[in-house]
Design goal:
This protein has 23 helices and 10 strands. The protein has 510 residues and is an alpha/beta fold. It has 2 domains: 326 residues, Rossmann fold; 39 residues, no CATH class. Helix 5 packs across helix 12 and helix 8 runs parallel beside helix 15. The longest helix has 19 residues. The radius of gyration is 25 Å and the shape is globular.
Length: 510
Amino acid sequence: MTATDDLLNATTEDIYQVQTRAAGPIGQLSLTEAMLRESPSGDLFGLSQNAGMGWNPSEAGRKQFLILSTQGGVRAPDGQPIALGYHTGHWEIGLLVAAAAKELRALGMIPFAAYCSDPCDGRTQGTPGMFDSLPYRNDAALIFRRLIRSLPQRAGVIGVATCDKGLPAMMMALAAMHDLPCVLVPGGVTLPPEHGEDAGTIQTIGARFAHGLIALQEAANLACRACATPGGGCQFLGTAATAQVIGEALGMSLPHSALAPSGQPVWLDMAARSARAVHQLETQKRTMRDILIPASIRNAMVVHAAFGGSTNLVLHLPAIAHAAGLPRPTVDDWITINRQTPRIVDVLPNGPTHHPTVRAFLAGGVPEVMLHLRRLGLLDTGVTTVAGRTLEEILDGWEKSERRTRFREILRKQDGVDPDDVIMSPEKARSRGLTNTVTFPRGNLAPEGSIIKSTAIDPLLADAHGVCCKEGPARMFFREKDAIVAIKQGRIKAGDVMECFTVEEVMRSL
């Protein structure tokens, strides 16, 4: 038998055991005369579909809640991969979906689940795939919105997402559901290895090897361990972790949910509690219109500044505001808030100590940072959150909570780290030399404003007034690939200034 014959012919007799009819589900749907006379045919057929998929026919008409996620890959029940996802951020979140669904069912609801998986910015670095990253966000937000509308009887929505573009897309979709109760469930973080490098540092092994800074065997060992656990976003405060922080700061997630360690009981518990939260919001007739208001956007900007979050959220937060029907933050708004708000969180990659994000969670996460910001008068604590309480009530409860005390003590005992060295008071942060993460210069080159991640600049380049001045020979490239090759071949020297332009940019400048 040839290889082609093997493709075209059966290898087992089982395939010829074909069934052409089935008895169908046992029982009957709870239909009424009014439903048959007045309901759209789609609503009635949906009940048939519910029963056909195995739901108890007598319960097929219960209130429906939709769980959306960015799940990717196929996991066996024991967690082993059947088919890999694109990244750890969406690999385990099916467990969050299941935990939320079980809780909704226990509440007497019918959970539905739908998915739109997301790419990995780390996997596409230096490849043409990166050109699809931001367009994916907009496409996925629309797909999520269409999936919501395609379940006409949904009473509320839970969104589960983790990473760089999938999580902003989910927030945009939920924010656009002005008249529905929605809760965001962040996918948490992966743990750092006990011995090795984090997922950000490891992305430089190619350049370091090319320059003789690391041996082949060492690179292979370090790269193998960088993602020390199978689920969650990267261990540094990049776009994924920052988006989780912003989702909670907006009031879209339950308190102390951002940056939870993926796969652990505290992470699963968050999903179950989020299911109860969306059910409570529906019962109270509260919707996203009640949660997202201009003050919520401003609070998120303040928390972003205090954490030292990724500059990419300057793209995503205005998009979320727009989806919510709210005014988008201006450059002046960002400048004002970043000048007023001290950075008080010490995490990767900003430093100075470079704690992984799981330590920020154990130190108290978003609520702990907000306690300091409230004392400075920088937050509007009258806003409502998906917990059904005002931010003022949330922070009062957090300050005295057992949860706060016990998680901070875990950080002390297990890692030997003082929580107040991860999330600091403004006074301690100032004494440790923490500066604002983001700067928005204006000038003749960028009259409408620009953005710089200040913590990425070598402090040695700053003058006595804290102003960075860099002069050197310009090395111009028209393709990212060529720039990467130049770095690895040693053609870029200390003191060079690298510039990458597209052909279109050059033509516009002529």
